[in-house]
Amino acid sequence: MKKTRLLANPDFDFKIIGLVSNAKGHKLAWEINNSLTINLEKDNDIILSFVEERRLVLLCFKYETENGKLLLIKNRSLESDEFSPLFWIPELHEFDYLIWLRETDLIDEEKIVKKLKGIRVIQYCVSIDIDKLKSKDNLLF
Question: Which terminus of the chain, N or C, has less C-beta within 10 A?
């Protein structure tokens, strides 16, 4: 049987910021809200299903305006255990949370990273180059 392939070049019109923090999601969202003067709110968990019957359930907080969107997403699935953890972006397993940012009227990425570095519950924070990620398609949901 002849196979047909769909070739697509998705548009990654957003930024990713990696965070290392041992804080619980609600505490981290509260700290980010205070630092960035935004209103991150708990959103429905993101559920990603894969062909291999693998499923990720990701904790998510959302702040959205007419022109921009910021998501705080836990990188480790809520359904994974400590012996076989499942990560949203496996090559970024050292990051506990990822910020998915589509900015227009929000402050720019560099200013966000600078402010996030000043939050006491965040040990490390850095912008991620999406083009270098092997599993960047996981970012499209």
Answer: N
Q: Where are the alpha helices (DSSP H) in the chain?
A: 25-36, 109-117
What's the first-to-final CA gap in the chain, in angstroms?
A: 31
Report field, pTM of the whole predicted structure over 0.85 = no
Tell me the C-alpha distance between 135 and 71, whole Å: 18
pLDDT digits (tens, 9 = 90+) for 2-18: 776 655 555 556 888 99
In the block, residue with structure tokens 């939050």: 119
The class level of CATH for 16-139 reads alpha beta
The residues spanned by each domain of the chain are 16-139
Distances (CA, A) of 31 to 26, 48, 56, 70, 79: 9, 27, 26, 15, 25
Q: Which residues pair with 41 in a beta bridge?
A: 62
pLDDT in tens, 125-136: 999 887 787 776
